[in-house]
C-alpha cells in the first residue's frame, strides 16, 4: 500500500515536508540517487504490455519499486513521484513527451510521462524516470540557461511545443524531449500501446536493456552494451565487450536497497 513514510525512507530523505522549492529539489535529487531507471522488469512477469501504459496500480507499483527495491520506467517512477508530491501538498499535472531519437526525430508524443509542478506562479519540470542523463534537480520552464553538476539545460518554446535541451562540457546543445504543456488524463493513453509497440518494432533500441541512475556527480547509463558516464559535465562513452565487466555494470546500476541484484535481461523498453 502506498505510504509516504516508507517512500521517504526508501529515498533516504528525512527533511521538511512542506510544499516548497527547497523540498522539491531535495526530493527530486534523492529519488534519482536512490532509484534507477530499469526497463528490464516492465512488465514484471515478462508478458504483454498493459493496455494503458499510464493506468498502473499504485499499490502494486509501490510494492515493486519502494518495498522490494526494484527500478522502473517512466510510467512507474513518475507515477509514484507525482503521487508523493500530491500527498505532500504540491500542485502537479502529468505531462507526456516525445523523446529525441536522433537526426531530429522524436518518439510518439505519449511515449514518456513526467510531472510539472507549479510553485508561486513558476512551473518546474520534475522527471525521475528518464532513460538517460538528464537533470538531477527540477528544471524551471524557462529559456534561461540552468546549470547543474557541470551540465546546462534550457527549455525552448515554438508554437506551443516545448523542447528540453541539454549540453555537457564535451557536447553541444541537443534535445532530450519535446512536449505540449497540457495536463494529461490517464485515459489519454487508451489505445496507445499498439501504436507504441509498432514504433518499438522499428526502433533501433527495440528489446535493448536500458539502465540509468544518478550519483553525486552526474549520471551513468547503459543502453545495450554502450555505457555512458557523466561526471561533473564530462562525458565518457565506452562499449562493454567483456561479459564480466558488462555484468558488473548491470549489477551496479540495478542493485536494490537490500544489496540483492535484479537480473537485467532484455524485455521491452520505454524510450
TrEMBL record:
Pfam families: Acetyltransf_2 (PF00797). The keyword Magnesium does not apply. Signal peptide: none annotated. GO terms for molecular function: arylamine N-acetyltransferase activity. Keywords: Transferase. PANTHER family: ARYLAMINE N-ACETYLTRANSFERASE 4-RELATED, N-HYDROXYARYLAMINE O-ACETYLTRANSFERASE. Belongs to the arylamine N-acetyltransferase family. This is Acetyltransferase.
